[in-house]
Amino acid sequence: MASERRQARIKGVVQGVGFRPFVYRLATSLGLAGWVQNGAAGVLLEVEGPADRLERFFARLRTEAPPAAGIEATSVTAVAPRGETAFTIRPSDRNEPVEPTLPPDLATCEECLAEVRDGAARRHAYPFTNCTRCGPRYSILERLPYDRPHTTMKSFAMCADCAAEYRTPGDRRFHAQPIACPRCGPRLTLADGGGRPQVSGPDALAAAVRAVEAGEIVALKGLGGFQLLVDATDSAAVLRLRARKRRPAKPFAVLFPSLERARTHLELSAAEAAALASPEAPILLVLKRGDGGVAAAVAPDNPRLGVMLPYTPLHALLADALDRPLVCTSGNLSGEPMCIDDAEVIERLGGVVDRILTHDRPIVRPVDDSVARVDGADVVLLRRARGHAPRTIRLPVALPRVLAVGGHLKAAIALGLGDRVLLSQHLGDLDGPEGLEVFDRSVADLMAFLDFKPEAVASDLHPDYASTRRAHELAARYGVPHIAIQHHHAHVAAAAAEHGLTRPLLGLAWDGTGYGPDGTIWGGEALAVEGGRVERVSHLLPFPLPGGERAVEEPRRSALGLLSVLDPDRAAHEAGRWFAPAERDVLLRMIARGVNAPLTSSMGRLFDAVAALLGLGARCSFESEAAMALEFAAEHAAEDGAYPLPLGPDRPAVADWRPLAAAVLADRDRGVAPARIAARFHNALADHAVAVARSAGLEDVALTGGCFQNRTLALGARARLEAAGFRVYTHCRVPTNDGGLALGQVWAAGHRLA
Ligand SMILES: [Zn+2]
Ligand SMILES: [Zn+2]
Ligand SMILES: [Zn+2]
Asked: Which ligand is nearest to the CA of 745?
């Protein structure tokens, strides 16, 4: 059969994921000649051989590509045969501008895991085994392009065996930049809680295993930072970790040795199992099935457990040896970034940990674990970090180059790169100096990596956010405009950007706290958004928050504010449930005089208030604890009823929650079960979403903002809106919470500039 030749350009995530060695092996196994090379926005290749084998090549290219590869488009053209006989991996074409690729860290692949577990393999039990399909990338990257001398592997000289693998086209480790083995690569050390080394090498792992078995708290230097490990089946150890971390109730994530072991504890759908085993390997929130031996203190009063599988050989070796579920939580204090070196652990977590299992491969930047859940077939990211960042999000239009600094909590920054947006990993909260330092470094790093010159700097409208002040400084430094985007406009714009919606869009931005241009705290908003333009369609009837921001930790304050609008006498009476008389009187005076009692239209605070009215949490030890209790109460109640939440006739229309609050109180006082009341409340909001959408007259509706982390609310509102004929968009690849703001800021500011 005569030879034919094809040229193909493959776009998508095809760099830094082992795609070229895969193409090489596929082509040579089919006896095809030609070449493959990295090029602009993807991979370029030519293959030559009989037509039927070329056909098989392109079919298998899609079905057998490395798991982390995301092929977006393949364009194939026929070219004249050249009579070549060999297949080669070509160096990048220097004349073709190569789009910079910032590869994310990828979970250990099955082949590497098998090697680590194979007693005869030369990488047996080696915790730093990796290949072109897996291993550290972004967390060890110092400069671009992504080559070994530009990573923290630069100080490890490859041994002859590793060097041979690195140079062999078709080897799984061909150009695997972090390639390593026990002879030439990083080594473990176990230190005590004060950082004094105790044992190094393979014995360090065994000693760490014994420490966990003994109930100790071990700080583990993982992929993108330190984590804290304890035996998840040991209640006393878990409670000690809670006490030392001063984290009384917020759920911990649990590492299971394998998918099979996870299944014995958890209800896992096929989509959930696939997400857990994916190269992104997030912490996945899944339904518990009994307690399965995991101590109740790990995720108290929560129907779900945050679960993950080993995503480095180090995690796999520890989990194999311990053969039990392990608490595996970020090595930080609440809201701070993860510690990335020993000195930080000793300084910031010295009183928390008993042992430190560390190694000599430096981490350049903290990259926390991603957190996700599965809704139907969709993986919904709630924290976008390891495995996902800093991948780009494609836009339907090219926009000016905007640097966006995000919000204040769950900070992330974004760089507008024309028709793509690079969204950074989750950077934590910007309250403390540690958070700000990581924020500043991320801005500097990403701009340097991409040689980025902004045409504008976008921020939130809140004048007191540290990020807003930074945006102001950055705009002055680069001599470009500073564009402030209202918080909820940015939330809706993030949905438009994620789903590529250029048509006018109604966004229901239901959220905790966002600065409103009228001086009140927004958060129960319906906004009509088109690019950079926004109109407030409706909002919740405002109510006062005595003590302002303190209401976030004390839902009882939201309840008091709500009642003061509904019925002041009732407020004074009910307040006795939550406050001592003197404190109650101070708060009521604050409300009456309008002093330190800002008005809010926040949906998050409405959730808090209803939760407090039902006795589901007057105070929170972590963000949205009370709102989550309300969600869990509603989750399995078979209840179709809904409370009234009428929408006024004006524009913006006011959603009057007073009939709803009155009905909640009446039901409660009649002894109706909290689960039923919680369900009627959720149903009321889902109905309300339809009423708002009808009044706005737009077909596309986005559900966005922190409240839609609530699965019952998100699925309920979606179902009712779709039944009413609306097209509904929710976030998947970008968090619905403030972790998605920067993407929306790029979209909104970019449109304004254009
Ligand atoms: Zn691998
Ligand atoms: Zn080696
Ligand atoms: Zn928000």
From this structure: 3
Nearest bound ligand to CA 162? 2
Q: What is the pLDDT of residue 96?
A: 61
Give, as residue ranges, everything with CB less than 5 Å from ion ligand 1.
109, 112, 131, 133-134
Q: What is the whole-number distance in angstroms between the Cα of residue 541 and the centre of ligand 3?
A: 18
Asked, for residue 506, whether it belongs to a domain, the answer is: no
Task: Please indicate, yes or no, if residue 225 is contained in any of the structural domains.
Answer: yes
CATH number at residue 673: 3.30.420.40
Listed residue (387, 415, 384) closest to 401, CA to CA: 415
Rounded mean pLDDT of 288-304?
89
CA of 427 relative to ligand 1 center, distance in Å: 27
Å from CA of 301 to ligand 3 middle: 26
- CA torsion sign, 108 to 112 to 116 to 122? negative
Separation of 160 CA from ligand 2 center, angstroms? 7
Residue 467 within a domain: no
Residues 84 and 194 in one domain: no
Q: Token pair of 326, please?
A: 């392990």
Query: Separation of 164 CA from ligand 2 center, angstroms?
Result: 9
The Å distance, Cα 491 to ligand 3 centre, comes to 7
Question: pLDDT tens digits for 605-615?
Answer: 999 999 999 99
Show the domain range for 58. Answer: 3-89
Distance (Å) from CA 604 to ligand 3 centroid: 10
Q: Which ligand is nearest to the CA of 180?
A: 2
What is the DSSP pairing of strand 521-530 with strand 505-515? antiparallel
Q: At what angle do helices 202-213 and 313-322 cross, to 10 degrees?
A: 50
pLDDT at 98: 58
Query: Could you say which ligand is closest to the alpha carbon of residue 705?
Result: 3
- The β-bridge partners of 328 are 229
If one counts the domains in the chain, the total is: 3
Integer-rounded Cα Rg, in Å, for the chain is: 27
Domain end, chosen from 346, 362, 378, is at 362
What is the rounded average pLDDT of the residues 594-603? 97
User: What CATH number does residue 343 fall under?
Assistant: 3.90.870.40
Contact 38, 15 (CB under 8 A): yes
Is residue 348 in a domain? yes
Average pLDDT, the chain: 95
